[in-house]
Specification:
The protein has about 375 residues and is of the alpha/beta class. Helices cover about 50% and strands about 15% of the residues. It contains 15 helices and nine strands. A hairpin with a 3-residue loop joins strand 1 and strand 2. The longest helix has 28 residues.
């Protein structure tokens, strides 16, 4: 065979491989990754250097930080103002009402651009006399969110606080934080470096790579006993067998909520809590795979248990609540994809649903 013929064969082979990879990538974008993918993948979008250790908060956002983050949803500009809030600097002139949103990654919403977050959309819906500021921090418990409120409330001039309470792990985090912060030292917070090389480039770009990573991590999840134990403890709250455990953890959450309520009362600020469900509570097809991945029996599932416990303790504490479970379920029933497949946070469509539900809740409940 001539050299030209061999080159032609090589070209056809490479072209066939490229077409095959492209088709596999397109297929990977359609196939559901299975339950637990959001745990196995983690949050991909957090830029390195965004957080620093903090003995009062355990860790906190770096004021003035600016970078780009990337997830499978695309590249996102991340900017923090001088208060460490996501977005621009607040104007000196105060509006009639200035909401400060606090909570964990569901409040921060790094997966979507600023303008597509529920905070931005809610601000638009409430009108020009109202501002909504994003003070979320990934992984925060209610205790940490309260301390964050203490730190920025005076400088921001907020008149109302919206806590996003994530049912997926905030009950666990509220039980865990008080003991851990007493033992704080700088080594307790180390932000891992981003992946490098080809894997680093594919991370957050290729759905095929994400599918492969989920499959690999699911096979090796038992190799990390600490992570396995934490996930099992968090998710066990969504089983019937954990009734007593839920009530025990709820006592820490009730104490945290009451501390936040006392703080907002002293400051003359309104307090509202948005009860945010994990993806598997809304898209219930994810639940069985998520529970079984950490050794829990899907037949023992009680997906509503933590929701009712949290709503009850909020009522006892005299705190207005906005339950987001039903609005998100309704949107999912209409075929809207409100959670990302791999990440488990809200999509732009999910943020629109949340903003609409919160506007209705705030207006009916006296938010405006």
């Amino acid at each position: 065979m001539s050299a030209r013929g061999r080159m032609a064969r090589v070209g056809l082979l490479l072209g066939g491989c490229a077409v095959g990879i492209l088709l596999a990538e397109l297929l990977a974008r359609v196939i559901q990754p299975g339950g637990g993918a959001e745990l196995l993948m983690g949050a991909l979008v957090t830029p390195p250097g965004m957080y620093a250790g903090d003995p009062f908060l355990m860790y906190g956002p770096v004021p003035g930080f600016s970078a780009k983050g990337r997830s499978l949803a695309g590249e996102v500009e991340v900017r923090l103002n001088s208060l460490g809030l996501r977005g621009a600097e607040p104007a000196a002139m105060l509006p009639l009402q200035r909401w400060l949103v606090i909570g964990d990654s569901f409040a921060l919403s790094l997966q979507v651009p600023e303008a597509q977050t529920f905070e931005a959309l809610l601000g638009e819906r409430l009108g020009a006399s109202t501002e909504v500021w994003n003070g979320g921090v990934e992984g925060y418990s209610t205790w940490q969110a309260t301390r964050r409120y203490w730190r920025v409330d005076g400088a921001l001039g907020s008149t109302a606080v919206l806590l996003v309470f994530f049912l997926g792990n905030d009950l666990y985090d509220n039980a865990w934080f008080p003991g851990v912060i007493q033992r704080w030292d700088p080594s307790m917070f180390v932000q891992p470096p981003p992946p490098s090389g080809l894997a680093g480039w594919l991370e957050g770009r290729s759905f095929l790579f994400a599918q492969a990573r989920v499959w690999q991590n699911r096979r090796h999840v038992a190799d990390d006993p600490k992570k396995m134990e934490r996930w099992s403890q968090e998710l066990a709250l969504f089983t019937r067998s954990a009734g007593v455990q839920v009530q025990q953890m709820a006592s820490y959450t009730e104490a945290a909520i009451r501390e936040l309520k006392a703080s907002t009362d002293r400051a003359g600020d309104q307090l509202v809590v948005a009860v945010a469900p994990p993806a598997f509570q809304v898209e219930t097809a994810r639940a069985a795979g998520t529970l079984s991945m950490v050794g829990l029996d899907p037949a023992d599932a009680d997906l509503e248990g933590p929701r009712w416990v949290v709503n009850d303790l909020l009522a006892r504490a005299g705190v207005t609540s906005c339950d987001l479970v039903d609005p998100l379920r309704g949107a999912a029933a209409e075929g809207k994809e409100t959670y990302f497949k791999f990440d488990g946070h809200w999509t732009p469509a999910g943020h629109r649903v949340v903003a609409e539900a919160l506007e209705q809740c705030l207006r009916v409940g006296g938010g405006r």
